[in-house]
Amino acid sequence: MIKGLVLLFLTFSCERASTEEATTKAAYLGSWERVEKAEKGFTIYEQDRGVFLKYRNGETHPLQYEASGNYYYAVTPLGNRPLLLKDGKITIQNGFTFTYTKTRK
Predict the structure, then answer these.
(1) Could you give the C-alpha distances from 77 to 21, 29, 96, 101, in angstroms and in order?
(2) What is d(CA 45, CA 53) in angstroms, rounded to the nearest whole number?
(3) Which of 6, 22, 28, 78 sits a CA distance of 20 to 30 A from 12?
């Protein structure tokens, strides 16, 4: 009986986490440009079951989902960089703070 309840709880928790990640991913996918300099931007896309960020200069980084904060972060040679999405804007902090708005899905 207890094993059944634990299994049911774990199944529900996994499904809820999966739904949250899918909703978050949908919000992140698309093209973004920097608020201060429109020529600076990137695209977030899904390929082979992974999510990636590609800057306009061709530089590409895989994104990892952080379930506890419900956000994605870029895995770069200089460390992990959180991409915080709030009010339709992504903010990236890597020593400087850059804000991006979505231009297309």
Answers:
(1) 25, 22, 17, 25
(2) 7
(3) 28
